[in-house]
């Protein structure tokens, strides 16, 4: 169930910060060759409009494959994919506001997004953070709807949510809502931009909210490093501004002539002009209806004609004074990063797309920079792309995550990066790479499936807001590659010089030097807003000359660098298996309907459905779509490997006839208890999976570029593998993954034997470089490949160890959530136990990892689902490939499948012992710099999913409670930025064999057949000002008062909320991938409940207001006999000292005080758990949930 989120999200960070990645690929010219039509609406003009509703067959062109559009000589023709059933219309209102309407007759959820061409780079110099603050204020009342929170309440009652974000040069507001309430939501949304109140009563509180948000961000390295980047930019350029703001920067200062409210109004009138806005709205109404609503709601937005293009003056964001520099940053967490950044003109189109392709495919494949550096054990990841894009510049960044060994070779890595760039300069641009990229973008657009409404409108509005994007391309722009332009590429590469580069090094190596007295004298500075230590040093002339003169050749690596080769994974065959299935009866065998007589086909499909299918499923899904209701069928049990050995694989299959795209997927859950048998077992299993994925990188990126994806994850119950993409290449990808599991395990097995025998030395060597680049203490007798594997093992161990050590810097609310699970899950290991296992160098070795993974593969039970454009014989072949890879695996008996269990807390009315008065976990925040404290109040309720009516009542309480808690605890009481509620399901200890399934649930139907774990309601608050105990008091006060809100609900609001919840779970799947996820979820969870959402919707429809109040009174009301409470308090060290003082004062007066209560084994008062030992002792005497 979607609920209203916080009224405004945040200011944003570049998505490629440090990690790099792709920049925007919008900004192409009109795709005239795609549709064969050059629309006169290719430019933007007032009052014009165009509609596209046509569909048809498409052939690949030199740009993108699209459905032939209807041509409208009076407007714009929007290009859309082959299979897109939505209809689009572009129009410009008389006030200049540009709009794209989307009519989707199948959608149950509507959405809208407004893009504003103004961000924090437009902040007035005296009020840093104004754009972000203004974003917050728009949610706090308008002339037509003056009540704060009215918009969120409306959305919550109608199954919706809202949010917003502020970027450098833009702001985006968006919402979604049940389709039947789109008009009401649209009218409320429009008032944001017409008549916001900017009420004096809200300004002070919301400045505090922005300050709380900044307080949360201060301990996040990503924000800290980004602000250092701004601090090292040209101070005369707007990019250098402090974008998120805080109370200090936003408060009124009459002595300086700063009036915050007047500035808010001025900012709104200046930048929130209709011709600087781009709106997209999606609903299930026809286009004419949507247009009428938009004209009525948004025509009143004023056009104040702001500057069309921001003027940042004559100074570049990064000029000569800021470049040719090395910036060293001290992080809070144990992080090692290297980034090389070059400011470039704001290139668009083929130039940016090809650069991203080169700086990704070339790096991870053979002959690439990533291959070389990873092979030396110096980097764990490498990426590149446009980190920041603006009107007058973009920042192109090459980002590397360094290992501990790599940190010692930072200068050599910098030189190797410039050597690779020298390769790009030394060879002419490769048209072949452009053609590969063009082929895949064409295929990707042709078979693109519809995304969710909220994501769709955000993408359209944002794309429409790009100055060089014509309206025709709001869908196709990201999938378009322009004509070949080698001169433009050459110009870009020639700008990637050492003098034009800023080098960023993030490391704790110099932390002691930066913190000591007198550090400023040797160049260390403190960034103003976050307090980050950093140093800026000019690159020496000698170093610049050396880097500028490096050749694209590395001694010892005559073939080290080369450009990417042809991509073998690009699909060439796109036939649909459903077209070959034959008559309806044959199709029924495949589990779907066929074309032909609709009623006959529907009846053929109906016979495939289980007798216990919920009636609501047949009522709400049209007959012609009943094939979507047919679950995967169990076509084979106990599939064995080559020669029939093993017999551990069960196969489910469903061939698609609904989405008709040439894509398929195969997903496998490999059940085994071994990965979670001990902390060491868990770490060795996770490390092998990570090492396997790293070893697959040399070709996996090619697969990704060709539209294939794979996931391989170790869980507490085994291994989960999935492969999906274009049908013609799925089997190839699966076979490579399966083959590599055995090959890599054999290599590590041999390496372990060598190291244990002494022929390869012992563990813990400092590392040997490949190709003659020996460093430190080498290991004798290992081949280059074996030494590479040994280094990778050490790098993986170090990476996990660093991750667990960094957990000490988690935000308090994250720590609270972690400790809820530590207490409530019966079988769970602790971070400290993982860390201790990793630090045991004698036990944590490649040999032990190989032995443990052999044990994992020794006994398994495997559930496999083949779904999509795949016939039964193909599905059986895929399952056989998995069985062959497990040919030595013994079947794990069903009775031995691993389970997970939840503790059953004692209820308040169940007497002494076991925590009946509540359990409090007190954990000091390890980081002295952390100023925030947090509390999570966790109320365990009834028997969870086995009682859907109770679950529905609890879900409604959470849906309404989320918004109520936010408004009371954050907006009114200003406790902190982080306030939310959520309903969670505890683990269930039951699994059932598939032979007992009938498609409607593990036990074959009925209301008591779903073995879900217990439900629990959590309320989370984080604050810089209150102790955890004080926060808990406010949470309890809100919970007590929330009962009155529930009782006061009108019948209209209650029924509307219930209807929205029902509509949400009945939402039609938007893609084949989404359908596969739903079906495999029922298989992987061993519930067999393919129709759970329909039974949930039936339960919602039975729900009464009295049932909701009864559930509240039974489980949540303070003092209720059935109340089961766990409270996790996480204190900053400052707040912990305050609490100790208060507790001492209370004890002196004979009371319990804030930290009172009994110890883990005491009696009277709440149980207080202050250590992992306390938690384990408590769990040992607490029953699990049956």
Walkthrough of the structure:
Belongs to the peptidase M16 family. Residues 445-584, 649-744 form the Peptidase M16 middle/third domain. InterPro entries: Metalloenz_LuxS/M16, Pept_M16_N, Peptidase_M16, Peptidase_M16_C, Peptidase_M16_M, PqqF-like_C_4. This is Similar to insulin-degrading enzyme. It holds the Pfam family PqqF-like_C_4. The chain is an alpha+beta fold. Among the domains are: 633-809 and 845-894, Cytochrome Bc1 Complex, Chain A, domain 1 (2-Layer Sandwich); 908-1121 and 1134-1180, Metalloenzyme, LuxS/M16 peptidase-like (Cytochrome Bc1 Complex, Chain A, domain 1), CATH 3.30.830.10. 38% of the residues lie in helices and 16% in strands. It is built from 37 helices and 28 strands. An 8-stranded mixed sheet has the order 1-6-7-5-8-4-3-2, with helices on both faces. Strands 11-12-10-13-9-15-14 form a 7-stranded mixed sheet. Helix 22 (679-695) crosses helix 28 (846-858), helix 24 crosses helix 28 (846-858) and helix 30 (948-972) packs across helix 35 (1105-1115). The longest helix has 31 residues, at 727-757. The radius of gyration is 30 Å and the shape is globular. The model is unreliable at 1-9, 15-74, 359-363, 583-595, 761-778, 1002-1011 and 1151-1158 (pLDDT under 50).
